[in-house]
Amino acid sequence: MIIAGSTLGTPDRDLEEALGLFKTAGLDAAEVIYQDDYPAAIRPSDKKSAQQAAMFADAEGVPIVSLSPYTTAINSVDVTSWQKGIDEFRGCLDAAHYVGATRVRVYAGAWQPGDTNHAAHWDQLRTALSILAQEAEHANVMLCVENHFGTMTQTAADTARLVNEVNSLAVRVLYDQANLTFTHDENWQEAFAVQGDLIGHVHVKDLVFKDPNAPFRASDTARVKAEERAVSSRVVGTGVVPWPDIIEELVRRGYDDVLTLEYEYRWHPQDLPDPAVGFKDSALAIRSILSKIVSTR
């Protein structure tokens, strides 16, 4: 397995510093945010940003294996917004190809409970991904649709449905069990049952519930606001997500690729130790799990 660090966990460092931290923490690779106005990112508005990122990655010996854009307009029924979303993803695919990243995180549009005209938005989303899938294939990049609140694929079932409808090997599932856990959707066994054969990428993080009976709320897509949270973020291995069972199932199914530590220090620094500590401890926890799995096979 390749253990990568997400620059979501390094908001107080620039990209060069973040890659250096990952190397010191013992990580194999990096997942880099693709967004303007964030220090540890490739910036869409700067044509030289991807070039600089590639230079930093080469100098540190920490390859960039994935990019994470925040684009959500690909399910818009407004043609101008929809086209802008597609174009933003095209720019991200170009950057991914340039830095050698093999996958791009996909938010499946923007969607909130109570929004209307689901079918029309879903059609726009499927069409956008079908268009982008052809271009991703040519760039040797997978579009990985995340199990994520605030999008049209909050659940594993909806994520699998979308990927199956697009029907391209360039569009896979980004499996995030922590997201499924705090939204009270599928447990890990149920998630594997519906999307296990479609997984192309995995996000790893951990949490504890403040109130396990509180209904999930999130008015944003990227993060859950402090006043809406019913969980606290934790270093991997110190929360409630059963990572030993999940990773063992991934191995059993033949997944031998990237596990990205999505350390949520950008959104919830009050919950977590400094990234230099948190990334190292999370990586050690994952390597310990993998070592035990290997020793029992």
Tag the structure with descriptive keywords:
single chain; about 300 residues; alpha/beta; TIM Barrel; two-stranded antiparallel ribbon; 11 strands
Could you characterize the architecture of this molecule?
Helices cover 41% and strands 17% of the residues. With 297 residues, it is an alpha/beta fold. The chain has a single domain (2-296), classed as Divalent-metal-dependent TIM barrel enzymes (TIM Barrel, Alpha-Beta Barrel), CATH 3.20.20.
Proportion of strand residues? 15-25%
**CATH homologous superfamily label:** Divalent-metal-dependent TIM barrel enzymes
Shape: globular
The major sheet is characterized as: 8 strands, parallel, barrel
**CATH class type:** Alpha Beta
User: Low-confidence spans: pLDDT under 50, at least 5 residues?
Assistant: none
Tell me the structural class: alpha/beta
Spatial order of strands in the largest sheet? 1-2-4-5-6-7-8-11
User: What percentage of residues falls in helices of 4 or more residues?
Assistant: 40-55%
Task: Describe the structure concisely for a colleague.
By secondary structure, the protein is α/β, with parallel strands linked by helices. The protein has helices at 15-24, 49-60, 79-99, 118-138, 156-166, 177-182, 188-195, 243-252, 275-296; strands spanning 2-6, 29-34, 41-42, 64-69, 103-106, 142-146, 171-175, 199-204, 206-209, 231-234, 258-261. It is globular and about 50 Å long.
